[in-house]
Amino acid sequence: MRLLSALAAGALALLAAVPADAQTRTRVTVYTALETDQLAPLKTALEARHRDVEVAWVRDSTGVITARLLAERANPQADVVWGLALSSILLLDRDNLLEPYAPADLAGLKPAFRDPANPPKWTGLDAFLSFVGVNVPELAKVQGRMPTSWDDLLQPSLRGRIVMPNPASSGTGYLQVYAWLQAMGEERGWQFMDRLHENIAVYTHSGSAPHVQAARGERTVSIGLDMRAVREKTQGAPLEVVVPTGGIGWEMEATALIRGRPNAAAARKVIDFSVSKEAHEIYGRTYAIVGRSDVNAAPVNYPANVEAQMLAVDFARMAAERERILAEWTRRYDGKSAPR
Amino acid sequence: MSIVRATISRDDVWMRAGLALVVAGLIGGIALPLGSLFWLAVLNRDGAFVGLENFARYASTPALANSAWNSVWTAAATVVIVVPLAFGYAYALTRTCMKPRWLFNAIATIPLLAPSLLPAIALIYLFGNQGLLRPLMVEGGTIYGPSGIIAAHVFFTFPQALVLIATALASADARLYEAARALKTSPWRIFWTVTVPGARYGVISAIVVVFTEVVTDFGVAKVIGGQFPVLATDVYKQVVGQQNFPMGAVIGLVLLLPALGAFFVDRYVQKRQVALLTARAVPLEPKPDAARDWVAFGLCAIPALGILMIFAMSAWASVIQYWPYNMAFTWRHYDFAQTDPAGWGAVWNTLVLAVLTATIGTPIAFAAAYLADRSRGAEALVTITRLLAVVPLAVPGLVMGIAYIFFFNAPWNPLNILYATMALLVLNTIMRQFPVTFLTATTALKGIDREFEQVSASLKVPLWQTLRRVILPICIPTLLIIWIYFFLYAATTLSSIIFLYVTDTKTAAIAIINMDETGATASAAAMAMVIVVIAAVAKALQLLAGYWLDRRHAQWRKR
């Protein structure tokens, strides 16, 4: 049945692509940081359902897309932001760039994935988590013990062998640092990071890079974006995906409508679609945690039952504390460390 | 009829009008966009005026001195390695009968064909912790850090230094060498008293270009720099990591300092440069000399092998299943639709951008260099042209990209119709690559005696005739070099246009970085190889065109 509907959607998309039709379609510019494999299925499914809408993606990493949106604020170019870290969406809100809109099927989302404001300015669609990746043969070479908790990362055999993102460059890095401070408390959190720093080989400038490095055996243990660890394992890396006990940091990716753009009617249809069950089933192929409870998301190789481990994160507070925490982190670890 | 010297001729009027146009273009394409970003340096994040507070805060950061020092010493180390290598290579190419010259010429261009990720991937696969050549490295050594930064930059800046030095060495007057030999001067002394002074302008330009490129580039430092802070990655942290544009603007301004220094060095040297190719000059034709030619071969072979090794490594990386755990052969990484929604469309966009940039940029860069070099009077315009022309060298791509958003997307700016179009990408790319092309054209023009114009003027031949019949034919090789230079840069550039592309104008270089970020390293290497092939075809066409035009037009220079 699924196959049939996919085929039908594909056929419709083909029909929709004929030039005569193209002239009557409204082009909606969508800025996104979603995984690239999400883009084609989402576009096909949406354009099959709303035949008068054409999606034009501009996809890049979270940092680049956020910088573009903020730099363009005097004259916004995006109609919709679909799949961008909530902390970035809140920055756009601070600059008054968002148009509140309650999509048709808002009630279908879990409460945590809804903006408490009414009408909401954003709707959540998935969560990205910070996981640990372990290169099994490399770990065996240094006779390390497979970590199961954060404290296990402090074992001496991992000295100079762990890679994690730099929180000053990467949102994934910051959510991890914030999660440690939240789960362990401020004082113990910094003590933990002081000791972890001894084992860190490098702080990368991207949240994706650590797991890629561990997957290739360049490093033994990585801390970073959940999806990347899972993807590398699926591609054939000898990478063990570990969900350490002691609390997992995470952030939500959300969708929002940009204020004052000419194609608002078509853009609202995009938002409507983004909360639909159909869309969430597509998210569920890549992301384990999605916004709707009626969708069973289970990407290949993703660890089971992580939802129980996720910390209760106050995103507004996480954003407010950012400058202070980054300053402290930079003071402690950024300038003084020698390259390894 | 009065006899007044320095009357303003009709040609002078045209040249000044042209120069004014060039200055207007440079102000619109460089000064105003940068100004609209740097203005933020005195504002806080909410847009209120705070004077020098951001500068004070930045100066109090302990990491600053560290980053600045790291930037300076890695750049200096790169210069010390690259400039002698490039000089030896250029000397072998232009002044000896070493064979096969065309092959070495072609190999030296390879780094220009490569998107910036290519050497980073290759160096990691060669010298990383799982690298093929890892056993060759000293105990405890690592490619992540300064050694990786320097190695990748040596690869990238080598052809740029080579172009500038080879242009300077290519125009030499054989009579000087004849005279020196007649005076029984030793070859060593001839080298230091005739060859080196003649190439001085090219060498200084090369030092300036290499130094500032290393200081401002963040792409290499980001991927292979490891835990090694430099100024350019500080900008990245502020702009992309924290979206703190005021602080990004502050560091961007700090990075302008080396460019200003370079500008004054450049001016100082120019005042002392005399034309080598005077109207009576006889082009130097190198004569075979077995011993010297074999040494030249060695000088070329070592860098050429290094370049080929990096290139071969990434070619191999693009056809293996999963490095380093599944080394089976596969073509599947070339099915780009699997890893990027634009698929092969990005390759087409790259081609369009490269052809437009090169074809529009070449006449502009050459005209600007000619007008700045040959205008009489209009000193102020000349100085502004020279200054603005080299500024982009010192501006990191991502700073220029954000600056373009602020300026070209402003609601009050009538030029905002260019925003989100290919035209803006073309403009940005021309401006980003303007310094090197402008310096290349200037170096070539410095070698051509002003007497050509003076004689023509006294014969009442209009300037455009002199240009068409004399100057342009002499400069055809240089024009072709500038064209290919723009083309290759446009095909591989990333850091600036990543902020300016839209769905329809996404280029392959952007697709490559996106692929690498999502872990599809092999696909990134594969698309990099496609770009290399396209760029290599363009380069081959340029060499063929040069050969053909040279046979048609350059006969008169031979004896």
Please give the structural blueprint.
The complex is a heterodimer of chains A (340) and B (559).
Chain A: H1 2-16, H2 19-22, E1 26-32, H3 36-49, E2 53-59, H4 62-71, E3 80-85, H5 86-94, E4 98-99, E5 123-135, H6 136-141, E6 162-165, H7 171-184, H8 186-199, E7 200-204, H9 209-215, E8 221-225, H10 226-235, E9 239-242, E10 250-258, H11 264-274, H12 277-286, H13 315-320, H14 322-334
Parallel strand pairs in A: 1-2, 1-3, 6-7, 6-8
Antiparallel strand pairs in A: 3-10, 4-10, 5-8, 5-9, 5-10
Chain B: H1 10-38, H2 53-59, H3 62-95, H4 101-113, H5 117-127, H6 146-170, H7 174-182, H8 187-216, H9 219-224, H10 231-241, H11 245-272, H12 290-317, E1 320-322, E2 326-329, H13 345-374, H14 379-390, H15 397-408, H16 422-446, H17 451-458, H18 463-492, H19 508-517, H20 521-553
Antiparallel strand pairs in B: 1-2
Helix pairs in contact in B: 1-13, 1-14, 1-15, 3-6, 3-8, 3-12, 4-6, 4-12, 4-20, 5-12, 6-8, 6-16, 8-11, 8-16, 10-11, 13-14, 13-16, 13-18, 13-19, 16-18, 17-18, 18-20, 19-20
